[in-house]
Amino acid sequence: TAGESQVQLRSALSNTDDFIRLYSQFRRTEHKSYPAAEARFRARTFRKTLKMIVKNNADETSTFRMGLNQFSDMTAEEMLSYTGANFTLSWDNEGSPMAPARGNPESKAWRG
């Protein structure tokens, strides 16, 4: 669904019909089908993602552009579990991730 213009994305936030059309297109493209109660939750999550995308892309200082993808109706927790990301890292003073500190092994077998 990466072909939507920024105008279409912004319009979907202010116009209910445009939002329904965009969300329906997203669900068709990504082959997503949900029971009614979950569909409402997914639509709200999609709207939150859409707001984040529009905000980021309107920011002229942003060094990247965002778009809709298969994760656009997933919560952050779902995305992390889907991608297998592991955020058990520590952060250094500059905000960069550091692997957890571990002791050195007692020995190392150098033979293959």
Write up this protein.
The chain has a two-stranded antiparallel sheet. The protein has helices at 6-14, 16-29, 36-58, 76-83, and strands spanning 90-91, 97-98. The longest helix is centred in the middle third of the chain and has 23 residues, at 36-58. With 112 residues, the protein is mainly alpha-helical. Helix 1 packs across helix 3. Strand 1 and strand 2 (97-98) form a beta hairpin. It has 4 helices and 2 strands. Helix content is 48%, strand content 4%. The protein is elongated. The relative contact order is 0.12.
For this entry, give a set of tags:
single chain; 112 residues; mainly alpha; 4 helices; 2 strands
Task: Produce a short descriptive summary.
The chain is built from four helices and two strands.
